[in-house]
Amino acid sequence: MQLTQHFPEQELKDLLEHTCQAIPRDQLHLPGPDAVERLFLPSNRPPQVLRNLAALYGHGRLAGTGYASILPVDQDIEHSAGSAFAPNPIYFDPENILKLAVEGGCNAVATTFGHLALFSRTYAHKIPFIVKLNHNELLSYPNKYDQVLFGTVKDAWNLGAAAVGATIYFGSQESTRQIVEIAQAFEEAHSLGLPTILWCYLRNKAFVKDGKDYHTAADLTGQAIHIGATIQADLVKQKLPDLNGGFTALQFGKSHPAMYDKLTTSHPIDLCRYQVLNGYAGRIGLINSGGESKGEKDLTEALRAAIINKRAGGTGLILGRKAFQCPFKEGVELLNAVQDVYLNKEVTVA
């Protein structure tokens, strides 16, 4: 794919020619074909976890690169099935979710117990399953924002999962319980040989101040990633940062001036690199989320996110709505286009 078709010349030049000077690439542990052995062989992860990590990194169009392209579909619970699937009703049938992940050349599919349990015998050997253990459901009235378990790690293991995923709403009133709950779940997952992926999201109305939404601030999201690595996530998922200074603007927590004037800049690749740094300097791989579907701009936005993540030292994208809220063929093409960024040797780590 010619990236010049999708970006103005100056924007593409800014993305592809930027050099990270605040945190040089040689200070990071970067993705590569030997990532599992290099990053996890010295760890406490059992051999079965290493085997499943290798299976995840060894599947799909990005097999053997150390990068990951994951299809996540949990919006039918996190929002509602109608809002998620109305743009393309074929995905009310969960088999089509699995078909999209397979045809799209993904490393894995991340979705609900219900979706994966129905097709465990027909698809668990075709593509690695990542079972999402918990969800926030919005059918309760009034709406509440709390991630609760929908099943057990043993359930995920029984249906043939290659890994488990979970979300913690850092900053919320419920986050302390969620940290304890998911730390325990991840310990059990590792004991059963399952790698762990944490959605390190922020959630608190107070994180919006003076018209700025600090849920995507580099400093706050970076700390969420750091806590995720601490509870032994093997991969962390986070939204791309688009601003900084959450700790100082909200006047809480602890910060240091160097976080803002030495460790990063306002450039999107530098902001994302600060996220990578917080994942134990890249030892715990960062996968950024693809975000909501906005129609005709989806491909360009997905490519931009992939370029930023890869050049920052990240491990890949976990992209859902942009792929499944469009016609099936277009979804496959979008997933492949994103994967092509990681296969493109001209898109280097900054």
UniProtKB/TrEMBL annotation:
InterPro entries documented for this protein: Aldolase_TIM, DeoC/FbaB/LacD_aldolase, DeoC/FbaB_aldolase, FbaB-like
SMART domains (UniProt xref): DeoC (SM01133)
Annotated family: Belongs to the DeoC/FbaB aldolase family. FbaB subfamily.
Organism per entry: Chitinophaga rupis
Protein's name in the database: fructose-bisphosphate aldolase
A GO term, aspect molecular function: fructose-bisphosphate aldolase activity
A single GO BP: glycolytic process
Keywords: Lyase, Schiff base
Residues in coiled coil: none
EC number per UniProt: 4.1.2.13
